[in-house]
Amino acid sequence: MEFVSGAEARYTVQTYGGTLKIEGVEFIDLTRHSDDGGALTELARMVSGGIENLPGFRPAQINYSEMDPGVIKAFHLHPAQTDVWFAPPDSKLLLVLVDVRKESASSGIRMRVVMGDGRSRLVRIPPGVAHGVRNLSGGRGRIIYFVDHVFDTNPQTTQEGRLPWDFWGSEIWEVERK
Description:
Blueprint: H1 5-10, E1 26-29, E2 32-35, E3 38-41, E4 46-47, E5 50-51, E6 61-67, E7 72-77, E8 83-86, E9 92-99, E10 110-116, E11 121-125, E12 129-135, E13 141-147, E14 161-162
Antiparallel strand pairs: 1-11, 2-3, 4-5, 6-13, 7-12, 7-14, 8-11, 8-13, 9-10, 9-12
């Protein structure tokens, strides 16, 4: 089929999948059990101090965070800490991940992932992967997250490093219109 000249020049095809992956970032789909009275999602089954579907991860602390509409919290960077995030299905959050590990096979790769938005899944964020989140919904955005280090306020030993929210440009947080 031929399109008019203006449309033909601007025509593109959206890709579905095949995005670049960051080494060590893992997505675990969870089952949401719904009935006429509500829903239940099992986030973690504890086995011998670890989480059954996250081999090698031993949580030391579990946190809950809320974000007002439009808020960006970024970028967090941990030299040794692994995070495991869950955004409830009624939240809609844009998670941005950037591999800043110099020796990583995926060094420099960026990922943008929508969390929540009707889905139940965990994301494992390894040490050295900068991460941040923007609340895309009109209501409060929520995150439950597990970490394998206890929060430490001592600047010499803390795992809570930061990079500016716009370190990779403010446009990284914009909704892509395709």
